[in-house]
C-alpha cells in the first residue's frame, strides 16, 4: 500500500533540511547514512506508514539539504541538533528513531544528547570504528580512501571504499541474472547520491570514522538503544562494530534481513523486524 507523501523544509542554523513525511501515528524518524538521502527509505516508509508518521530527511550537505554558504565538514553534534529540531518541529513528544550506517552514528549522538526527544533508537550497523579493540587497521583503510580521493578523484576512492566495505563482490564468475530496470524514483535517488559522493569523501568519511558514541550515557537505558546488524553481513566491518557497540551497552543485537542496506532490498521484512524491535523495547 502506498501513502501520500508530504514534503517540506525546516530552516536550521546554517542550512535548510529537506524532509518527506508519510502515514499517521507516533513519529518515526529515519536517518540515512553516508552520501544517501531520504529517497533510500521510500519503500520502507510505505511499509511502516500504517503505524507511524514516518519522516525521512536528507542530512545537511546531502542532496536537497543545502548549506547556507560554503560546505562545512560533517560535525556529529550539528547533525544531532538537526535531528532534534526535526523531531521538535514535526512530532508530538519523543520519536522512534532508526539510523543506518553513518545515520546510526547521528542517531547515537541524538540519543545521548537529547534523550528526552527519543523513545527508542535502532542503530543499524553503525560504523563505530573507535569501539573496536584495535581500530588502527580500519582507520588506516578509511584514511587511504580519503587520500585516494584527494589524489585520484571520486571514482577511484569509491571503488576502494566498496572493496573495503565488502560491497564489491559481483562479477567474480558466472553471469548475473538479468534484472528489471529500476523505477524512475530510484534512478532519481541514485543520481542524487552520486552527486553527494564528493562531499562525503571530502567532509564526511573521516569524521564519521572517528566518532565515538557516549556509551556511558547510552548505557543508562533512557532512551532505549537497540543495535541492529544484517543477517548477511557477518564478519564485515559494520557488523563487527555493531556487535562491539551492543556488547558495550550490555544488550543483545537484533539481526535484520539482508545486508548493510537491507532496508531497501528486504523492505517489508525489515519493517516487520523494526516494528518488533520498537514494541519489544
UniProtKB/TrEMBL annotation:
Superkingdom assignment: Bacteria
Start and end residues of each AB hydrolase-1 domain: 26-155
Biological process terms in GO annotation: glycerolipid catabolic process
PANTHER family documented for this protein: AB HYDROLASE-1 DOMAIN-CONTAINING PROTEIN, HYDROLASE, ALPHA/BETA FOLD FAMILY PROTEIN
Stored InterPro entries: AB_hydrolase (IPR050471), AB_hydrolase_1 (IPR000073), AB_hydrolase_fold (IPR029058)
The protein, known as: Pimeloyl-ACP methyl ester carboxylesterase
GO molecular function: triacylglycerol lipase activity
Organism of provenance: Phyllobacterium myrsinacearum
Alphabetical list of SUPFAM superfamilies matching this protein: alpha/beta-Hydrolases
Pfam families: Abhydrolase_1 (PF00561)
